[in-house]
Amino acid sequence: MKSRIYVILILSFLIFVSLYYGDNIKNNVLKINDIFINSIYNASSYVVNSVSKHFNQAKQIELLREQNQKLEEANALVATFANQLNLLLEDKNSSQYFPQVSLVRAISYVRLDDYSRLWLSSTKFTGNKNKGLIYKGYTAGIAVLDGSRPMALLQQNEDCTFSVYIGKDKVPGVLQGLGDKISIKFIPKTKNIKVGDTIYTSGLDEVFFSGVPVGLVKEIIDDEVYQSAIVEPFVQINLPSYMYMIDSL
């Protein structure tokens, strides 16, 4: 009899709880369920992102490894070419060819109203000879000494000059800055040049190596004695962070 009474009381209590507290219990259970599910999703997203990041890093590492192999191959070919060239020079009793460049950093403008002159950080500038500057594989200008301090004259500067070739026929000329433009002067009238011809350094003035790309012929001007041309440079330079300076040819 007592056991039946206990069973009835327990059932009554459960019915009472379910009627009055069922929604609260349900809501609490759902909240716990939501927290659990969100935790699973967050953990899953973290694992996916971590795996994706790992594979992206692995892919980037593989890409850099391939690029490094290509650079090593190019370096080996250049070294072989330089060695063969030196052998030829030895046969002709000429001096060996060991070109050298150094990385220089642009510190600041020399004057705030002149964007074509930059102070350079370099401890390798020796002598008074002008040195070529290369930026991203193209001519940038020349480096000169101002007192004892190295200074870059970008190729739009009026004091920047170096010798060039134009087109496949290697028509000679001299690059000179015009402030807001770049020109090629002293082009023989007897030579045929055309708009779109590629301009390279000639190396004859020993400022640059021969063959460094400069730009394209944009306009041809017929002067009295010579022709001249306006250049469309391959790179527009304002304040490059780093450039390569030609130390020796």
Q: pLDDT average, as an integer? A: 77
What share of the residues lie within helices? 25-40%
- Shape label: extended
| Rg, nearest Å | 36 Å
Poorly predicted segments: none
- Measured between the Cα atoms of the first and last residue, the distance is 114 Å
Strand adjacency order, main sheet: 1-2-5-4-3-12
Per DSSP E runs of 2 or more residues, the count of β-strands stands at: 12
Query: Would you list the SSEs in sequence order as H and E?
Result: HEEEEEEEEEEEE
Strand content: 35-45%
The helix count comes to: 1
Q: How many strands, which pairing sense, and closed or not: the largest β-sheet?
A: 6 strands, antiparallel, barrel
Q: Please identify the structural class as seen in this structure.
A: alpha+beta
